[in-house]
Design brief:
The complex is a heterodimer of chains A (331) and B (315). Chain A is an alpha/beta fold and 331 residues long. Chain A contains 11 helices and 14 strands. In chain A, β4 and β5 form a beta hairpin. The chains are: A alpha/beta (331), B mainly alpha (315). Chains A and B meet through α2, β6, α3 and α6 of A and α10 and α11 of B.
Chain lengths: 331, 315
Amino acid sequence: MTYLLEVTDLRTRFHTPEGVVYAVNGISFHVGEGETLAVVGESGCGKSVSMLSVLQLIPVPPGEIAGGMALYREQDLLKKTESEMEAIRGQEISMIFQDPMTSLNPVLTIGRQISESLRVHKGMDQKAADAQTVELMELVGISDPAHRLGDYPHQFSGGMRQRVMIAMALSCSPKILIADEPTTALDVTIQAQIVELVTKIRQQIGMAVIWITHDLGVVAAIADRVMVMYAGFIVEEASVNALYENPRHPYTSALLGALPRVDHRRDRRLKSIPGAPPSLLVEPHGCPFTARCEYVIDRCKTENPPLTPVGKNQHNIACWVDINSGVLRCT
Amino acid sequence: MDSATSQIACLTPDDLETPPLSLSQLAWRRFKRHKPAIFGLVVLTLLVLYALVGSLIVSEKYANFNDTSLRLLAPSAAHPFGTDSIGRDVLARTIYGGQISLLIGLTAVVVETLLGILVGALAGYYGGIVDSLLMRITEAMLNIPEIFLLIVMAKYFGGKIPELDIFGRTLSGSVVVIVLIIGLTSWMYLARIVRAQFLSLKENEFVLAARATGTSDLSIIFLHILPNSIAPIVVSATLGVANAILSEAYISFLGLGVQPPTATWGNMLDGANNYIESAPWLWFFPGFLILLTVLSINFLGDGLRDALDPRSRTV
């Protein structure tokens, strides 16, 4: 079976005055048609950078895509020229961003911003684009859309702006929507609305969603599959049920252990993972989680475990140890 | 009390809703509150009317007509602004000179703004080697004193363009030369302003968002980022009009600008320095008109800056 998007051994670096930042270190993943893939991990672990790399939205320089392939319908996106990518972005793969307050251009009307990709990609005239825009705004739940076309972003609240962003991203019915922490800047009730909205639209138009987040609660609600990243590596990848029921990588397990739970006593301190993620300025050798791992063995320090299947159901982890039994996994 | 509540109750939702104001309506509202800007607008309008309507009353021939027997006459009923050193009527010359000075001011700013935006936008948006190259050129230009550049270019290009007809007037080709050299020597500050704007604006998420929807570089530069920097550009451009009028006055004063008999406010001052005390009307009227124009344009620019920013909170 071929996937809609298949990324192989993607490596992204940034050349900074402090040295080379190894942001993404050879990750491979895939997204199927209509599937929702969640990408989780702490800040700076390469979630956003890997998705931006796929769309070639990394600033070059200082960024550099040092290797890998990103096959979208059998075409390598990383080899495409800027103008070829312009035809892909928005039309085939769209992206929405974290902060709706800054992701909209403050001096252009909402209508113009949503209709822009319709005019660019579909060659619609302003009138047709406006009509389509009104429909899109209705779809994302903006009331009285015809009257709000001429409004400016500052006349919208945060949640409404994120809806506008979603309308923009959906305008050309893309096959994949990359959502880069779209709910982080919103308050909880609005978060729930946005999550619901994206889920609903995904079912309506049957697109795949890549949802970048560090909110494990959201992941459980929407994702089919989850990919856990750490320091530019994928450490675990599994279906959402398998991951929550039985995390197999020490990092995932610690991450889930750190979640606050409703049934815990209130005065209990939240658990945290001791230590800090490794500096990305050092070329990685060995497993990146070594310094914070409670299952660490000698081999971890010298050799980075590859992502390999464990058990059944396409559950992959990158670890030398089976944390359930405490024994070494044969490789 | 009763009638008040019933009135409130009578209001339908439609009545309560104020119609949304368009951006230009909002801008006009803010502009109107800026008293100096209104002053500037009114004075500038009057000055333009002075130059345009005046030319319907007195002919250009009259403005250029010289009779040395009438030289250096003090203001009188026949010559309200007096006559100059070769007997031309100063009032008529300020009218025709005003047309040229204002024309030079406006067109030189168009040249300046286009160049400045182009250089600044490309340098700021692309950065790297494009930025280094364009900014070094800008700095090189800035390092040469402007007046020196103006003089050298005026001397070099002067007289190479034949006379031309604009709006029924025959102008010496030096007008075009002056417009171009003022434009070519004054774009650097604007380029720096635009570059600085682009450097900060391009880091905004809305630029990334626009790129993520497949917008091309050119439309990001000109349709997304440029409208965000319109306020400083408009201010700089209005001030540029004032500067261009002054620059024209400098070089015309030095005798290198627009060549007589075509009058400008600047070249009317040329030679007036010999009569500062004996014939003050020679420099007072053109000088006062330049002052008034520059002042009102500056006020106007100030008001536009406040009015054009859609994020401005004052309504």
